Amino acid sequence: MRIEALGCAPARLGECPVWCGRSQRLWWVDVLAPALWSFDPKSGTIVAHAVTARRIGSLALRKAGGLLLACDDGLYGYDPETEEQHFLIDPEPGQPGHRKNDGRTDSAGNFWIGTLRETDYAPVGAIYRISPDLSITTFADGLAIPNALAFDPERQRLYFADTRAYTIWACEYDAETGHVGDRWIFTTTTAPARPDGSCIDAEGFLWNAEYAGGRLVRYSPDGRIDRTVDLPVSHPTCCCFGGENLDRLYVTSASEPLSAAQKEAEPLAGRVLVLDAGLRGRPEFLTAL
């Protein structure tokens, strides 16, 4: 399988690739830079967008247009054309040592966001659901690094992980009513590979980037490994389908944990990888926030 890399600078911690069907652009962040990037496949243009110095853990597409940015100090609406930002809400105020991590929108327009304490990655993080009226519901707590949020409305299912626990869970979820069922262990990974960001393809299979595992894994809905894709980077972080036909798989990665020797051995570390997985993804849900 041919794997290419976008011509952007290596990210310290590349995360949250999101394909925008309206603009036909890929968006992603470098959490630690901090930076917000976009890529236009038709022109080949890569843009570093002007944002404030606050770090962005993840992003989402808004129904009203523009982006939702999950920053250290809360959620912000962002207009890429005017570069204007406005504060919406912070689901976890009064926690300056916590930062926002993986985030994802469900089919009803709710935005889900995980938080973590990066000084020691103690299990004090949580996952919150923010509704369009800005009400907040705590979905899960006691997590070290919440990750892998993904929604399969056809099966009424929600996926999430704790990267430090080497575990991805699934649970029944009805986005329209808000009902969440009991969780069950969907799959586990083997050290050093840890489950990081996920996406779901058109067949309802879950793709997961294995941080420190150097690969993508495609899981069938019953949790079996359907296929693996070895990558030229050891720390992939997240994946999404994009392109005009949603048939290109984009993968962000990190360079921060690597030594100088490791970076020399992995020249693509921190770059956004692009590959053809031979199937299509699903359009990203739009948040109503």
Largest sheet, in brief, is:
4 strands, antiparallel
What is the averaged pLDDT score? 96
**Uncertain runs:** none
Query: What's the helix-strand series?
Result: EEEEEEEEEEEEEEEEEEEEEEEHE
Query: Main sheet: which strands, in order across?
Result: 1-24-23-22
**Proportion in helices:** under 10%
CA(first)-CA(last) distance: 39 Å
The number of distinct β-strands equals 24
Please give the radius of gyration in angstroms: 17 Å
Percent of sequence in beta strands:
over 45%
**Number of contiguous helices:** 1
Describe this structure in words.
The protein is mainly β. 2% of the residues lie in helices and 51% in strands. It has one helix at residues 260-265; strands at residues 3-5, 14-20, 25-30, 35-40, 45-49, 56-61, 67-71, 74-78, 85-89, 98-105, 111-117, 125-130, 136-143, 146-152, 157-162, 167-173, 180-188, 194-200, 206-211, 215-219, 225-230, 236-242, 248-253, 273-275. It has a 4-stranded antiparallel sheet, with no helix packed on it. A 4-stranded antiparallel sheet has the order 2-3-4-5, with no helix packed on it. The longest helix has 6 residues, at 260-265. It is globular, with a radius of gyration of 17 Å. 45% of the residues are buried.
